[in-house]
Design goal:
With 516 residues, the protein is an alpha+beta fold. It is built from nine helices and 22 strands.
């Protein structure tokens, strides 16, 4: 299919065209393609309209740290080099020395001159990736190994490519010479099975096989309905409960993708979902469940923090802004400890991007798997007062940076951003936004109503113009009762392709016989 046709197919049958976050994803995609096929296949990347700074490992810069030199960036180039700790935008084709990053080993100096793309490929082949720098401390650590007086590549770059499902990750795996700057080189991205899964952009009109992601939609999932009418949160809740089931609930990242894709393509604001602030705080797991097992240290939790660290086999409440190493959970490999220190929210985002989620611990046996670590580790337990409109007790959350806010008056109702990968923020419940319901539309069901008309004189009810006039009368009546908005009404034709059939009225006759 063409890229737009493939996108429509994937959205109808699954979630969307394939999204790729890591080299592991690339390898999985290559193995999915039939062994006998040697051409390109569509994935979900397409050229957008706005360039953004991002990191080679896929992180965006929505909450950025930058250390630009004076008068930088000047936007003459799309890659970034560091000299004496200050950053410069630089032409990606220039040859530079560079550093790589290796997980658990830190920064590595590479005394080879390469352009930015070749440096990226080298780091991914021999280490993890080009370095990502989150704060001044990491920038100082990197500066210590830089060659004095040289411009050296780091992992920051700028591009306009975006994922079909609005996923905000910036992992890229371009083939040599890609992306091309020549005019007419194409706005849609195909993956080559025979070139190690590398990417090139082509005309979106070309016909290619393609890869979707997500579960087939015949399996259970929420049925979401976007209502493009601005209402307060309470009015939106009443509308959804009257016409569907309730305001939208989300349990997983797949649900988030579905929510984003449900919203009309032209809308760019926030939309109400069913989460609002409750009155009771509960300890819940990041993966969405309530705790059945606990391992608090004596005297804990003592109110010191709303997130939980594990240390020496016990749990402690801790401020969520504390920077600690992390234990993630991966569906395929189990618990994975990451020594890079980060806040609890950043740890949650990291685990969801690279694995499944922050670790949930449901038994003493699982706790023992991480108890030998010498430092404190973030786990997935956190304190939460937010609840779903339909009383659903799963605790999956997908907050935007800085959310939820602790400041007074920051709002008790949750809106989903259509431009920030579907992330959530709190607003005053009195604001008016479009909203998303879930459940079957109780009004959008085919109902057949038999009508009976009487007429004096000649009956012409099968005259099309008269039938149209009658439908208009019915429609106006429904509107006056508040029962019709998007409803469609039409006549049902029976045998002989006629709508109306004359009913023969039989009357009692006398017992008298008339003779002629």
């Amino acid at each position: 299919m063409s890229w737009p046709e493939a996108q429509s197919y994937c959205r109808e049958k699954y979630t969307d065209l394939a999204t790729v976050d890591t080299m592991d994803d690339v390898n999985r995609l290559v193995n999915i393609v039939d062994a006998g096929y040697s051409g390109s296949v569509w994935i979900g990347l397409k050229r957008g309209t706005q360039k953004r700074w991002a990191w080679s490992n896929g992180e965006n810069t929505s909450a950025p740290y930058f250390n630009w030199a004076s008068e930088e960036p000047n936007y003459n180039a799309d890659c970034v080099s560091s000299k004496s700790g200050f950053w410069y935008d630089d032409r990606c084709s220039y040859g530079r020395y560079f550093t790589c990053y290796k997980e658990n080993n830190g920064y590595i100096l590479v005394n080879n001159v390469k352009n930015w793309s070749d440096a990226q490929s080298y780091c991914r082949q021999y280490y993890t990736d080009l370095p990502t720098i989150h704060n001044s401390e990491e920038n100082k650590q990197l500066t210590k190994i830089l060659l004095s007086g040289y411009y050296m590549w780091i992992g920051l770059f700028r591009d306009s490519w975006e994922w079909s499902d609005k996923w905000s990750r910036f992992f890229r795996y371009w083939a040599a010479g890609q992306p091309s700057q020549s005019s007419g080189s194409g706005d849609c991205v195909g993956m080559s099975r025979t070139n190690s899964g590398k990417w090139a952009h082509e005309s979106c009109d070309l016909k290619r096989p393609f890869i979707c992601h997500g579960w087939p939609k015949y399996q259970y999932q929420y049925q979401y309905q976007f209502i493009n009418e601005s209402k307060t949160w309470q009015d939106a809740q009443s509308y959804c409960r009257a016409r569907f089931t309730d305001l939208a609930t989300a349990d997983t990242m797949s649900d988030v993708s579905l929510l984003v894709n449900t919203v009309d393509a032209g809308y760019r604001g926030s939309v109400w979902i069913g989460l609002h602030n409750g009155t009771e705080y509960r300890w819940v797991w990041s993966m969405g469940s309530l705790p059945q097992y606990s391992n608090w240290n004596q005297g804990e939790p003592n109110g010191d923090g709303e997130c939980v660290r594990s240390f020496n086999g016990s749990w402690y409440g801790e401020s969520c802004s504390t920077v600690l190493p992390v234990v993630c959970f991966n569906d395929s490999t189990g618990f994975i400890i990451t020594e890079t220190a980060m806040t609890w929210r950043d740890a949650q985002s990291y685990c969801r991007q690279h694995h499944t989620d922050l670790a949930s611990i449901s038994s003493a046996e699982q706790q023992n798997l991480i108890s030998n670590n010498e430092s404190s580790l973030w786990i997935g337990l956190f304190l939460d007062s937010w609840e779903w409109s339909e009383r659903w007790n799963l605790s999956f959350r997908y907050w935007a940076a800085g959310q939820p806010s602790q400041s007074s008056g920051s709002g008790d109702c949750i809106g989903m951003s259509t431009t920030d990968s579907g992330k959530w923020a709190q607003y005053s419940c009195d604001l008016k936004h479009p909203f998303i319901c879930h459940g079957d539309d109780t009004l959008i069901k085919k109902q057949i109503v038999r009508l009976k008309f009487s007429c004096n004189g000649e009956c012409t009810l099968n005259d099309p113009s008269l039938q149209t006039a009658i439908l208009n009368e019915i429609s106006e009546k429904l509107k006056s009762l508040g029962l019709e908005s998007d409803s469609k009404i039409n006549w049902r034709k029976g045998k002989g392709e006629e709508v109306f059939h004359r009913k023969i009225t039989r009357t009692a006759s006398s017992n008298k016989c008339n003779k002629k």
